[in-house]
Amino acid sequence: MPDWNEPIRKQLADLKLAPAREAEIVEELAQHTEDRYRELQTGGVAETEARRIALDELNGHELLARELRAIERTDAPEPVVLGAKGKGHPLAGLGQDLRYGFRTLRKSPGFTAIAMLALALGIGANTAIFSVVNGVLLRPLAYPDPSRLLMIFEATSEFSESSVAYPNYLDWRRESRSFTDMGAYRSDDLNFTGAGEPERLSGEYVSASLFPVLGVTPFLGRNFLPGEDRQGAACAVMLSYRFWKQRLGADPNILGRVLTLNAMSCAVTGVLPSSFRFREMAQVFVPIEQWNSAELRTRESHPGLRVIGRLKPGVTIEAAQAEISSISSVLAREYPKTNAGAGAKVVRMKDDMVGYIRRTLLLLVGAVGFVLIIACANVANLLLARSTARKREFAIRAALGAERWRVVRQLLTESVLLSLGAAAIGLLLAYWGTSLVLAAAPGTLPRSGEIGIDPYVLLFTLAVSMVTGILFGLAPAFHSANANPQESLKEGTRGAGGGRHRAEGVFVTVEVGLAVILLAGAGLMMQSVWRLLRVDPGFNTRNVLTMQVALSPQVMASPPGIRLAFQQLLARVAAIPGVQSAAVTSVVPLGESDSEISFWPGAGPQPAPDRMTAAMFYVVTPDYPAVMQIPLRRGRFFTDRDNLASTPVAVIDDVLAKHIFPGQDPVGRQISLIVMGTVQIVGVAGHVKHWGLDADDTSKIRDQIYFPVLQVPDKFMSAGVAGLTLMLRTAPEPLSLVSAVRAQVAGPTQDQPIYAVQTMEQIVSGSLAQRRFTMLVLIIFAATALLLAAVGIYGVMSYTVTRRLHELGIRVALGASRQQIAGLVMRQGMRHAAIGMAVGLIAALALTRLMAGLLYGVRPADPVTLVAVTLLLGGIALPACYIPARRATAVDPVVALQCE
Amino acid sequence: MEPPAIDREWKKGSAELLLLSLLDALPRHGYEIGKLIEQRSQGALRFHAASLYPLLYRLEKRGWIQGRWVEKSGQRRRRYYRLTAQGRKVLAAQRQGWQMFIEAIGRITGVENA
User: Fold this and answer.
1) For chain A, what is the mean pLDDT?
2) C-alpha to C-alpha distance for A801 and A820, rounded to whole angstroms
3) Which of A31, A208, A826, B51 has its CA 20 to 30 A from that of A154?
């Protein structure tokens, strides 16, 4: 038979086809020519003549070469052959890799689905946590040049960041040169009347300078003028966008309209933009000079005023701190009675908002990183198992001259494809997961409105998935690329190769180790929350209903009227069936609010501020201990006869008693309260954990003083009354009485609304919200880790059994018992798990120390938690090893050996 | 009787349609296609390798047909071509167009449509 290839190749030589393409064409045309040649011979043509005709027809007067040139040269590709030495661009053939990768993944949908799901969990969790970190910690505040915004606090020995006395703020603002300007604000609720039902609005008293300092331009109208922020000026008001839109129907002619707030007529000067997120709850903003209170005029009082300054360009935060400190020390010399020992502290506004949560979020970032590593280890294991199955494929490529790097690249392309697909699913998981967790723990995170999926989050997810894909693809890729083609081809399908099994073992160990760390973290958080829930707060949290009450503007006119109104209100509410007792208090324990007062023992003259002690100050009605079930240790509580006509009295808690009167009976002794004067102690009550179930023990102010509402002097009555909370002890479920209470509080004039209704149990659980959030997220991560680790162990063991079937068969044939076979397999699996647990425990001991600040009542190295975690993981690892081991015992030696 | 010669240009114009039509029923290899054209046209049409294969490659490049090496027991492997979905649409359109063309020619020249 003549050789056709050579003459054909000669005809094609000029075309410079890609080698693979050329070979294909040559083969096809040779086939054709051969067919034609035989046909001619069958028809009686002589051999040489037949050969000439066949070749002539093929050549067709150069027609073939001409035609082929037109077709095959149009986009003459780089001669790319898998494994051929890459000429030119290093990424040549990437498209081919991608197409091939797609096809391989599509061919094994089961593997692809499982691997993608594991990765999607890991990438999704990372994206979710990053979107939180991005929104809360990384994204700058939504003001122009936000890094120059500073909070300025007063600093005393007791409080490093105390609220500011208004006259001090005015002096700071006038004297300092480091700031372009300062602004001040103070939150307060305002009564909104004259537009249907009376309403309690969430409001802010702000200095006229505040919005310009923040750099906010109103959506409608204008900011306050300095002239509007002056004592005696006509009241003006600015509205939040939401309030204007929802409550006032987005009235376009709102400017100049007059709203009645706290019985003042306030003209609307502006509406803030919808993007304005300062004090998110606030509905209305009123100039601070409109706050009609003596507290605004004294340096003694620190009525929750907060100050923001904008640094001048070029001034450092340290220089600003030094200047404000020196102004404060001048003030301390000038007003020793009120300002002695009071300094100042500046803090970046963003740090003030989010600083306290940074640690928690970074902890979660670490934890979620572990979840991803576990997912990677899992998928790497799957890929390893697969790479063994694909050994022949790679061996053939290597035999055909594929370079190692080229095979590695092909495999990495596949794993990156896998992780990109997982990232798409993960993004969805993150989107749902974030909104789910935020909904489950509302109010836990500052700036939660800014959490979402933005371009940075997308970029992060993309980067994570690329890195992940390369990371988990690397080991299997190199394993495959290193395979000795000769060995692999000879060996058939039953692979060995120690490297792969070592890698498998390492992956299982890593997974188990990381799962131990995550479980330990979650376990410690659970223990903390559990212990906190069992802490005795000093009162009975069950069946207590709390709410804010806005008194009718009519009764607010006179202090005696206010007292009378409260007494009548309490009598009406107490008569509701199901209400066991009712009281009013100025401050609710474990809530957001606090109120301190400085005092000194005896009736002597007021000492310097640094010689006085601060105590929590509760202004209450006589039934307060009955509602809260606070135990009375000595003496008595108040009665209705403790009024303005009788001696001023107070009840102290046992902490103050031990602190000021150690070893003595305080009942009958005197203490003096700043502003209020000297009072006689009539009783000692149990201590209440005001600052939180966890924080109270370590807080600086723990002394507590109770003072009767009926003895509050007239001049403080209307100011003090604004924040009073109504507290009821109920027999039935507290929230079932809300409508009855609402009806009774409304009063004869039907203009006293209740708001902010909460049960005491809700307040307690709210005080633990941040810890519960951390716990919840860690539990989710730990559960994921546990699941992935279990799947990982099971997968590796199953595969091991399949691979060793032949060997196990021989063992059975040689007389090994079923127990021996099972034990052999189990020992191998449990050894990896045990090493993982040991390494994990050591790492957990080191890492959980980082979360010491988040724990309560449990040490980071808590043996109970660590033992429990180990048992749990062991309990999961055992069945994960046992099931494959049992399968191994079912080996039929005949079948196993037949596989040869 | 010797069949009348067919103009080279006519052959060129109809070549694509012929190839697609032959692949409509089942996949075939190049030599078979060439033979079938010759047989069914009773020798009036003949495609040599020099023109047949470039045409096949062109159609393949356009995505109308797809070649695939097939090994049948005891034979050397051959490249079989099959019609793609796109090729099937092209074939339908070309058939219709050709039909109209022939009718138009027939009405003008008076040649009866066979």
Assistant:
1) 85
2) 14
3) A208
SS3 string, B20-53, reads HHHHHHCCEEHHHHHHHHHHHCCCCCCCCHHHHH
Domains contained in chain A, number: 5
Say if B57 is an interface residue toward chain A (CB within 8 Å). yes
Closest CA to A520 of A808, A810, A847, A196: A847
What is the pLDDT, as a whole number, of residue A77?
A: 46
**Chain A positions in Cβ-Cβ contact with residue B59 (cut-off 8 Å):** none
Q: Which residue, of A341, A369, A394, is where some domain finishes?
A: A341
Residues 6 or more apart whose Cβ sits within 8 Å of residue A578:
A730, A731, A732, A736, A737, A740
Tokens 């138009």 sit on residue:
B104
Instruction: Tell me, yes or no, whether A711 and A590 share the same domain.
Output: yes
Question: Are A328 and A362 within one domain?
Answer: no
ipTM: 0.85
| Domain covering B13-109: architecture | Orthogonal Bundle (1.10)
Question: With pLDDT > 70 as the criterion, what percentage of chain A qualifies?
Answer: 93
- Is B72's Cβ below 8 Å from some Cβ in A? no
- Which of A277, A309, A341 is at the close of a domain? A341
- The full 3-state SS of A356-410, as one line of letters, equals HHHHHHHHHHHHHHHHHHHHHHHHHHHHHHHHHHCHHHHHHHHHCCCCHHHHHHH
A69 vs B contacts (CB less than 8 Å): none
- Asked if A28's CB is within 8 angstroms of B79's CB, the reply is yes
Give me the domain span that covers residue A23. Answer: 5-77
At B21, list the tokens: 């039509």
A711 and A816 part of one domain: no
Residues A430 and A505 in one domain: no
Distance between CA A830 and CA A869 in Å, rounded? 16
pTM of the full structure: 0.65
The reply to whether A122 and A111 lie within a common domain is yes
Mutate to test the interface with B, among A12, A71, A74, A75 (most CBs of B within 10 A): A71
Chain B's closest residue to A35, CA to CA, is B31
Asked whether the beta carbons of residue A60 and residue B58 sit closer than 8 angstroms, the reply is: no
Dihedral class, residue A320 (left if φ above 0, else alpha if ψ from -120 to 50, else beta): alpha
* Residues A718 and A571 grouped into a single domain: yes
- Nearest by CB to residue A59, choosing from B30, B50, B57, is B50
Residue B44 forms contact with A (CB below 8 Å): no
Question: Would the CB atoms of A31 and B78 count as touching at under 8 Å?
Answer: yes
Band of residue B114 on the pLDDT scale cut at 50, 70, 90: very low
Chain B residues within 8 A of A32 when measuring between CB atoms: 30-31, 34, 49, 53
Find which of A89-98, A154-163, A459-468 is predicted with most confidence, using mean pLDDT: A459-468
The tens digit of pLDDT for each residue in A583-642 reads 999 888 887 666 778 899 999 888 877 778 888 899 999 999 999 999 999 999 999 999
A490 with A504, same domain: the answer is no
Q: How many residues are there in chain B?
A: 114
Which of A21, A22, A31 to probe the B interface (max B CBs under 10 A)? A31
- Predicted confidence band of residue A678 (pLDDT cuts 50, 70, 90): very high
Give the pLDDT band (50/70/90) at residue A724.
confident
Optimal mutation site among B8, B79, B80, B81, interface A, most CBs of chain A within 10 A:
B79
Who wins on pLDDT, A9 or A322?
Answer: A322
Q: Is residue A82 part of a domain?
A: no
Q: Is residue A739 part of a domain?
A: yes
Is residue A716 a part of any domain in this protein? yes
B80 near A CB under 8 A:
no
Grade residue A218 by pLDDT with cuts at 50, 70 and 90. Answer: very high
Both A95 and A65 in a single domain?
no
